[in-house]
Every structure is written in structure tokens, then in C-alpha cells.
Design a protein that fits this description.
The protein is mostly beta strands. It is built from no helices and 10 strands.
């Protein structure tokens, strides 16, 4: 299974980004998908997750009200608004919502929030 992340960048506090997670060679329809991030010196954590039909979502407390996860076609999105410096990190998507259960990670996409 190969997932490809995109959409990261360098933004100022308060700005927005939309991350995309696209599947290559298979359908995402049968998988819960999570977005994870790893900040420098910290462990990888689940930021947001969505179930197969989009009826159930999870958000890390610190991003509730600012981030929105969604899925359409063979892509899962993470809309990130009102970005803060503490959102800085490498963002990855993977099946499930538990980073310790992920066998292999993609390249991720870097999000840097800085003034």
C-alpha cells in the first residue's frame, strides 16, 4: 500500500493549508485513514482520522475546531485553518489511527508555521 502526501508548505500563523493523501494503485474505500504528524524531537502522533464512509472522525484536542478531515474519491484531505507554530512538523497519512500499528510510512509533507 502506497500513500502519497502533498500540500505542505511554509505559512504564517493564522493561515491555512490543505493536505492531500492519495492512494497509488489501490482504493482507499476499505480503509480508515489517519493523518499523523511528527514534530522535531517528538513522537509521531495521530492528528485526525476518518472511517471508511466518513461518518466518524477523530481530532487531537489541540486541533479541534481548526482542522477538518474529509475524503472524496481516492483521496483523504486535511484542511488546516488558523495554523499555529506548534502545528509545525512532518505530516503523514496511513491506514488506521494508531501510529504504532503502521508498518511503513510514506515520505510525508512538511508543514512549517512561522512568522
Amino acid at each position: 500500500l502506497q500513500l502519497v502526501e502533498s500540500g505542505g508548505g511554509l505559512v504564517q500563523p493564522g493561515e491555512s493549508l490543505r493536505l492531500s493523501c492519495a492512494a497509488s494503485g489501490f482504493t482507499l474505500d476499505y480503509f480508515d485513514i489517519g493523518w499523523f504528524r511528527q514534530a522535531p524531537g517528538k513522537e509521531r502522533e495521530a492528528v485526525s482520522c476518518i472511517n471508511t464512509i466518513g461518518s466518524s472522525t477523530y481530532y487531537l484536542d489541540s486541533v479541534k475546531g481548526r482542522f477538518t478531515i474529509s475524503r472524496a474519491g481516492n483521496t483523504v484531505y486535511l484542511q488546516m485553518n488558523s495554523l499555529k507554530s506548534e502545528d509545525t512538523g512532518a505530516y503523514y497519512c496511513a491506514p488506521g489511527c494508531h501510529p504504532e500499528r503502521v508498518d511503513a510510512w510514506g515520505r510525508g509533507t512538511q508543514v512549517t508555521v512561522s512568522s
